[in-house]
Design goal:
The chain contains 4 helices and 10 strands. By secondary structure, it is of the alpha+beta class. α1 runs parallel beside α4 and α2 runs parallel beside α3.
């Protein structure tokens, strides 16, 4: 059966379908926000997951609802694909450069959602994407996935580079954390 999931989310503001395989596959992202598509594609590529996301949102208002709800849907999909988390490494970390920017992500699939986000965006807009939405995506993802997530921009001057390093480092850290290394649950409590 594999580590897969299929999650739908429909509200008055958005309609989202996400199909995920933690063990790889094709990546197809269509949210109506080109830069966000690029970021979610980068996340999936570096996480080495298969991911299809189709989102229709109230983009005539702005991108907030779409970005946040994709984060919620993707987080739920990851949580469901992990099941009881038997055998996973649990922890992941990555430090990724993008030109002048350097960003770090450290996470724990603990079942205790929490976000620490420390990344000031020097520019407010990246194409049609509000730079402040990166934090909203990460918060939604952390809450729905049940992951403790810490992200920090160590330095950087370009919001595009900072944002891309954050999404890529999330991907690498997720890849590391969901890797199967054993047969038990990685917790002294015996459950995650």
């Amino acid at each position: 059966m594999g580590r897969t999931s299929s999650v739908s989310r429909k509200t008055r503001e958005t309609s989202i379908q996400a199909d995920l395989s933690l063990d790889g596959g094709e990546v197809l992202i269509d949210t109506g926000i080109a830069f966000f598509d690029h970021m979610v594609t980068a996340f999936a590529f570096y996480a080495r997951i298969g991911l299809s996301v189709t989102a229709h949102g109230d983009l005539e208002v702005d991108g907030h609802h779409t970005v946040e709800d994709v984060g919620l849907t993707l987080g739920q999909a990851v949580r469901e694909a992990l099941g009881d988390k038997t055998g996973i490494r649990r922890f992941g970390a990555a430090c990724i450069p993008m030109d002048e920017a350097l960003c770090r992500t450290v996470l724990d699939f603990s079942g205790r959602p929490f976000l620490v986000f420390d990344a000031e965006m020097p520019q407010a807009q990246i194409g049609g994407y509000d730079a402040c939405l990166t934090e909203e995506f990460m918060r939604a993802f952390a809450n729905a996935a049940g992951v403790t997530l810490h992200q920090k921009m160590l330095y950087g001057k370009n919001a595009h580079h900072i944002t891309e390093a954050l999404y890529k480092s999330l991907g690498v850290a997720v890849r590391e954390a969901v890797a199967v290394e054993g047969t038990g649950v990685t917790s002294t409590k015996g459950v995650l």
